[in-house]
Amino acid sequence: MNNPPDVSPDSKEYEEYAHGVQKHVRAYLMVGAILISFTALTVALSYVNFGTAKANIAVATIASFLCAIALVIYGVWFYRKMKRLGIIA
Questions:
Q1: Which end of the chain is less enclosed by CB atoms within 10 A, N or C?
Q2: pLDDT tens per residue across span 2-55
Q3: Distance between CA atoms of 70 and 36, rounded to whole angstroms?
Q4: Minimal CA–CA distance to 67: which of 47, 87, 85, 43?
């Protein structure tokens, strides 16, 4: 007779899947922490007087540039990840 295949969950397969999810969640949390810290740094530096208006503008520009670089790196990483998973073409 036709016996149906065994579809019971495999504990080893589940552990590998859970480990993969945990790795991705950790990566997202790290990226979020980096972006929040750069934002906090930018806001904190906005309250500091560096002597002249030119110095204040230079420091604000550098801090904003670093935040923008982090955001671009995250965007590229996220795009490549979604492409690798087949979510986007």
A1: N
A2: 676 666 666 666 666 666 777 778 888 888 898 899 889 888 988 999 999 999
A3: 11
A4: 43
- Token pair for 53: 């208006």
Token duo for residue 14: 């589940």
Residue with tokens 């923008």: 68
Residue 2 CB neighbour total at 10 angstroms:
3
Annotate 11-68 with three-state secondary structure.
HHHHHHHHHHHHHHHHHHHHHHHHHHHHHHHHHHHHCCCCCCHHHHHHHHHHHHHHHH
Q: What is the pLDDT of residue 54?
A: 93
